[in-house]
Amino acid sequence: MAKSLDGKVALVTGASSGIGRASALAFAREGAQVVVTARREQEGEETVRMIKGNGGEAMFVKTDVSSAAEVESLLRTIAEAYGGLDCAFNNAGISGSLAPTADTNENDWDSVIGINLKGVWLCLKHEIALMLKRRRGAIVNMSSVLGLEGTALGASAYVASKHGVIGLTKAAALEYAQQGLRINALCPGFIKTALIEVATDNPDIAKAIVAAHPVGRLGNPEEIAEAVIWLCSDAASFVTGHSMVVDGGYVAQ
Question: Of 5, 44, 59, 228, which one has the fewest beta carbons inside 10 Å?
Fold first, then answer.
């Protein structure tokens, strides 16, 4: 039986754990050759081992997406290894320290914006250049429900970065819509990953976060991965510039 991404080359940033790892595994399951990137080498290599253990093909390239030189090197490596790129999931992100806006540390702000927004732009910049050589490709940028709404949890840098990703996605999607590229954003609700562990250490906060989702639970990384795969597949051939919400009803309230 044919798989939805047979013969494709897919890149997943921040693939050392959580949604990134689940998505890398899903890309491989659907027949793609997967390029796994992350700053944490040991965990990234573990993702590769998991893919290969399931019969898939993958390679790891250690990358800090906030570094222009490292992202350029990553895409050059992909071009040399595979000759091109078909799909990309720009997932790498951090939550930063929680603090009210007036108390946010400048270094924390720069770090969050550097990875969550600048990092997506740098990846887009070089992914697009490579994809244009074949005039085809699908890119998914990781935003959040907090890219659509605000919060009083003390995450202004994170909220700003995720709103920025949506704007960047719309602009890029329109720029390249007639050149064979589709570019979309994904807006998950709160997912069971390390990113929210700090918040859920407090039982009251954990209970409130769960209660904010009408379905009565947090999401699983695998549920987000399935949306990524669909957006990158031919089944979504008429979808571009879209911010897909996968959130258990969070923003419908």
Answer: 59
